[in-house]
Amino acid sequence: xxxxxxxxxxxxxxxxxxxxxxxxxxxxxxxxxxxxxxxxxxxxxxxxxxxxxxxxxxxxxxxxxxxxxxxxxxxxxxxxxxxxxxxxxxxxxxxxxxxxxxxxxxxxxxxxxxxxxxxxxxxxxxxxxxxxx
Length: 133
Hints:
Elements: E1 9-14, E2 33-39, E3 56-61, E4 85-89, E5 96-107, E6 115-122
Antiparallel strand pairs: 1-2, 1-4, 2-3, 3-6, 4-5, 5-6
C-alpha cells in the first residue's frame, strides 16, 4: 500500500535501544525503509504526557516491522531498551541520526492506503552539521 505522501527519507531499523550509547546498534530489523519524516517537537516533546514524548513522526508502510516498548503511562518502570532504534543517514552520507521508537500506531486504514505512524524521540546526531564550505 502507498503512503499518503511521497517519501522524503530512507531509514534502517535496529532491535533494542541503548540510551547511553544510541549508535551501538542491536540486531538488524528492516533496512532501507522508505518513509516520510516530519518534525513534531512542539506537539510531542513538550506535550503533557508523563512518559510518552517524541520529537518526530515517521510514516511508513503498514507492513514494516517496527516496534516500541510502550506499556501504558501508568508503567514508568517499563524496559525502554525493548523499543527499536531508527537510523537516518543524510543523503550524502556525512551525518547519521538515531531515533528511539516511542510509540507505533496504525493510521488511516482505508481501501486505498494504510500506514504506520511511528513516534520517534531523537538522540543527539552522531555528527553535527558544520558551516564549513
